[in-house]
Recover the amino acids of this structure.
């Protein structure tokens, strides 16, 4: 497999490990970018971007980053906190009065960002097209009863996070949540990152597909078992209501919508650049970054049925857990995306990491491909 791009010779082993991914015949296309102290030391890509294996992955290929999008939304919200336009510990109803229904009058932005609010899913099934109807989704969430009492643990909100945080951004800023986030977290750093993609960009978006045959680790199998056997369980509903969530990735309407939990589009460069911007203080004041990366939630995740550890809109490292470590330092923070893409920072090494793939693996938290690259990277430093 021919590897395109640039790498510092100190990191040749990382390039070799990246090339080795393509020994798997199912691997399609991927990109990796690493920045150390703001300097790009690895920026490489390879493979195919389209469904039929005819279109090579290019320098400017972008892909759906799934939940790698969530920290971008959190940063926009935290910037508004820094400006006094939002508050972390004031009830959400101050900004969104309709949210007070069904005992939600005490829920705060902090609890939404750290997955403690009890709103990872909607109980009543919605039609598939509701996914693209912002007012319908926010109204449904405003009417929803939390799945557990406030203060009794956390459960990851795979997609509802986008409407919950996005609606606050929309109400405070008066424009679409994707516009808010891109203007605040991507444009200042000149990142090739989008939430709500223009049709003119579609030709450079990688087609996403699922790998076959690999059942993943124990956590993935546990979640899959619940989703197959318990259609009304919270975990199932969180991924399947509306039923179009899991099947829309390559559709034009998915790319166009502004859903800041799951439909950011970008490349490995934009992920690494984002985390460099956090590490060097360009995106957040140090007190707000400390707040974002401080442990808020830890332990058994009521949605994912495995141990998770969250700050505010970011996933924190769990070094002792094979499926929950980024593979570098214990203070690493960032977010994996469904199926393998991953962006994170390791503050101890002043390192920012972005990995993007269009061949989805079956893992719930960290994908072994990104972890392997990070471990090789550690050996090079």
């Amino acid at each position: 497999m021919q590897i395109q791009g640039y790498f510092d010779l100190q990191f040749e082993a990382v390039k070799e490990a990246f090339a080795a991914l393509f020994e798997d015949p199912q691997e399609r296309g991927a990109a990796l970018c690493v920045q150390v102290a703001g300097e790009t030391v690895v920026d490489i890509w390879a493979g195919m971007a389209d469904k039929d294996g005819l279109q090579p992955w290019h320098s400017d290929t972008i892909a759906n980053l799934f939940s790698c999008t969530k920290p971008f939304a959190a940063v926009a919200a935290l910037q508004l906190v820094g400006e006094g336009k939002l508050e972390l510990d004031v009830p959400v109803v101050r900004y969104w009065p309709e949210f007070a229904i069904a005992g939600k009058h005490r829920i705060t932005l902090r609890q939404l960002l750290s997955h403690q609010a009890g709103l990872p899913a909607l109980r009543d099934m919605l039609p598939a097209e509701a996914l693209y109807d912002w007012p319908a989704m926010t109204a449904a969430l405003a009417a929803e009863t939390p799945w557990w009492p406030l203060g009794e643990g956390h459960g990851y909100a795979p997609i509802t996070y986008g409407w919950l945080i996005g609606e606050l951004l929309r109400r405070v800023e008066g424009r679409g949540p994707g516009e808010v986030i891109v203007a605040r977290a991507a444009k200042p750093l000149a990142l090739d990152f989008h939430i709500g993609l223009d049709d003119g960009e579609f030709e450079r978006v990688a087609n996403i597909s699922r790998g076959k045959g690999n059942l993943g680790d124990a956590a993935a199998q546990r979640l899959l078992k619940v989703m197959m056997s318990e259609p009304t369980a919270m975990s199932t509903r969180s991924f399947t209501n509306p039923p179009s969530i899991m099947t829309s990735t390559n559709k034009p309407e998915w790319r166009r919508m502004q859903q800041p939990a799951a439909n950011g589009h970008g490349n490995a460069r934009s992920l690494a650049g984002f985390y460099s911007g956090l590490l060097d203080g360009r995106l957040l004041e140090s007190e707000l970054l400390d707040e974002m990366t401080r442990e808020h939630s830890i332990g058994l995740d009521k949605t994912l049925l495995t141990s998770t550890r969250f700050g505010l809109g970011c996933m924190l490292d769990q070094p002792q857990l094979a499926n929950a470590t980024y593979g570098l330092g214990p203070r690493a923070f960032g977010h994996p995306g469904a199926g393998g893409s991953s962006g994170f920072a390791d503050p101890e090494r002043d390192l920012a990491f972005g990995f993007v793939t269009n061949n989805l693996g079956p893992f719930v938290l960290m994908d072994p491909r990104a972890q392997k690259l990070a471990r090789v990277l550690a050996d090079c430093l």
Notes: The chain has a mean pLDDT of 97. The longest helix spans residues 160-173. The chain has twelve helices and 14 strands.
